[in-house]
Write a structure and sequence with these properties.
The protein is mainly beta and 405 residues long. The chain has four helices and 37 strands. The chain has a 20-stranded parallel beta sheet that branches. The radius of gyration is 22 Å and the shape is globular.
Length: 405
């Protein structure tokens, strides 16, 4: 009996060792391409990229097998840079489930630095973590169903990442598209995604309206967008567009800021044909002329709640949209915040109409900094739960963590 038990333990140990994911480290574009091809064919599925700048000049990486992880070897996203120079159309194409991209910087793809779409089966479990995406020619992360709309990309996550469009990238968007066809995260027919703890910045143009910082539409559902800082994007967060709607989902604990900007700025949070959406405890401050911070639009937008949001612009229904509005503040002042011009919308002081004035929301247990809610007699309005400790120092610590390269 004892021998049988020892034999069983030995079999389990061998199985665990065999199941351990082996890793390959690459240091050239050719090696990375070969490692991806090998992983697609059953080879090592953990690919580590050595520190350095990799000029792709048209090379792209198509991940078709399940369970592939590609990431920078050092863990610091600034150490590994894949630069498409607008010659590479899409740096990573993801067609397999449980794919992870992490700890790297992706620059100047002509279209989408990351494009996730199905080919003959649903794609699930995508993770994009600690990735810096800069200057996409179109949307930074594109999520599509297949053309027949029979398969989709579901239950993914984008977290701890920085997605941005710079001045030089802005001019390339017009050169490539002849319009402002750009945005941060753009998803069609996707279910159960989580977009959290990201900085998304600069998606605007001089001559036209850009797409959203985060946009889930074309009958997407159950999206969670939380704890993001969205800065100077023409449109901040959107569920649905026109009659191409969204079902369910939560938008909470986000900072959405836009400076004086330009003529094409638009709404901070928009619900269009979005049924059952929950929008609560966000802070929005816009210095551009557009009059509304949050809009719920069209008759198909119904059965949702908009609660505990702090803004300096109106919250309005358009074209027959309906929602349950409670405890929103729409007269926020610039001086209420630590440093609005940098997108830091932490409270600078205990504003009497904000602190402890929110309504209880079941399941809301923390704020944008992971501080617990409530901290006082009741929940605060907005994304930041006021804490008597040095809020400026705490806000800068939070900001530095998000921007760490």
């Amino acid at each position: 009996m004892r021998i049988r038990i020892l034999w069983l333990f030995w079999i389990i140990a061998v199985s665990l060792i065999s199941a351990e994911v082996r890793a390959v480290t690459v240091s050239t574009v050719a090696e990375l391409s070969a490692a991806v091809n090998a992983a697609n064919s059953g080879g090592d599925k953990m690919i580590r990229i050595a520190a350095g700048t990799y000029n792709l000049h048209g090379t792209y990486f198509r991940l078709t097998a399940d369970g592939i992880t590609v990431g920078g070897a050092t863990g610091k996203r600034g150490d590994v840079v894949l630069d498409g120079h607008y010659e590479t159309t899409e740096i990573f194409q993801i067609l397999g489930s449980n794919t992870t991209l992490q700890n790297m910087t992706l620059l100047r793809a002509r279209y989408h630095p990351i494009h996730i779409y199905p080919d003959g089966k649903d794609v699930t479990g995508t993770l994009i973590s600690n990735v810096h995406i800069r200057d996409p020619g179109q949307q930074a992360v594109k999520i599509n169903q297949n053309s027949a709309k029979t398969f989709s990309v579901d239950f993914g996550r984008i977290t701890g990442s920085r997605i941005e469009l710079s001045e030089s990238g802005r001019s390339m968007v017009w050169q490539i598209n002849g319009s402002c066809y750009t945005g941060g995260v753009d998803a069609h027919h996707a279910a159960g995604w989580r977009i959290d703890n990201n900085v998304i910045e600069g998606f605007w143009c001089y001559g036209g309206l850009a797409e959203h910082g985060v946009h889930f539409w074309s009958f997407s559902r159950d999206t969670l967008v939380e704890k993001n800082r969205i800065i100077n994007c023409d449109r901040g967060i959107g569920f649905g567009l026109g009659t191409s709607g969204h079902t369910g989902g939560v938008i909470r604990n986000n900072f959405v800021y836009h400076n004086t900007g330009h003529a094409y700025s638009d709404v901070g949070i928009g619900l269009e044909s979005a049924s059952g959406a929950q929008v609560y405890n966000n802070t929005l401050y816009h210095q551009h002329p557009y009059p509304n911070a949050i809009e719920y639009r069209f008759a198909a937008t119904h059965s949702g709640v908009i609660r505990n949001n702090l803004a300096n612009k109106a919250i309005v229904s358009r074209d027959g949209g309906s929602a349950n509005l409670t405890a929103n503040v729409t007269n926020a002042q610039l001086g209420w915040f630590v440093d609005a011009d940098s997108g830091d919308l932490h409270l600078a002081a205990a504003v009497s109409t904000v602190v402890d004035r929110g309504v209880f929301i079941f399941g809301l247990e923390e704020d944008i900094d992971d501080d617990p809610r409530p901290m006082g007699r009741g929940m605060d309005i907005g994304a930041d739960e006021w804490l008597q400790a040095d809020r400026k120092t705490q806000g800068l610590t939070w900001l530095n963590l998000l921007l760490t390269e």
